[in-house]
Amino acid sequence: MSAHAHAASHSHGLVHESVKRSRQGLRAVGLALLILALTAAAQAAVFVATGSVALLADLIHNAGDAATALPLGAAFLLRSERAERWAGFAVVVAIFSSACVAGYEAVDRLLNPDAPEKLGALAAAGIVGFVGNWIAAVVRSRAGRRIDSPALIADGDHARADALVSLGVVASAGAVAIGLDLADPVIALAITLLILRITWASFGTVRGGGHTH
């Protein structure tokens, strides 16, 4: 065995902790991205058929949630804790942006009422959102705790809350079914407020977490 190969074999255990952490982080981010992308695609198809702004609020948020995989993935690829912290703040900005868009759409629908259609499909889309976000939350949270990543943990908490938000879409379908047409934009506004609350909680997690060394 050459001296170089011998040295490499003995350094194997020294250099691979950061590599393993990076790989685990990337795996969690990639899997969650796939789950949320499929969830958003399914909800988009239903939104086209129903026109529900409660569903649109949830869809916009899920799509934005999936997009946060990009800065998080880059941070894990770089194996930089500083980049990981900034990626966490990028997650917070994405959540806040989705709240602004969802709120605008809800107010517009309040001013220009138009009840959604195909309520069975709408309820099904809400259930899809709940399941997709819950699975993504489990993937992110477990990996975040395993590798001690505040940004990934915050993203997991975010997805778990999103799962509950998706149930609001199911409530919207039920309310409209019994004749409460304005329930759709009202629930969309409630979802917007919950997203803003998630924004603040996620900001606190990212700002307060991380390594001290």
Could you characterize the architecture of this molecule?
Helices cover 88% and strands 0% of the residues. With 213 residues, it is an all-alpha fold. It has a single domain (23-208), classed as Alpha-lytic protease prodomain-like (Up-down Bundle), CATH 1.20.1510. The model is unreliable at 2-15 (pLDDT under 50).
**Helical percentage:** over 70%
CATH class identity: Mainly Alpha
The CATH topology turns out to be Alpha-lytic protease prodomain-like
- Say how many strands there are: 0
Let me know the average pLDDT: 77
N-to-C CA distance? 37 Å
The number of helical runs is 7
The secondary-structure element order is HHHHHHH
Which structural class matches the secondary elements? mainly alpha
Which band does the percent of strand residues land in?
Answer: under 5%
What are the SSEs and their pairings?
Elements: H1 3-50, H2 53-67, H3 69-78, H4 81-111, H5 119-147, H6 150-177, H7 183-208
Helix pairs in contact: 1-2, 1-3, 1-5, 2-4, 2-5, 2-6, 2-7, 3-4, 4-6, 4-7, 5-6, 6-7
Which tags fit this structure?
213 residues; 7 helices; 88% helix
Outline of the structure:
By secondary structure, the protein is mostly helical. It has 7 helices and no strands. The N terminus is likely disordered.
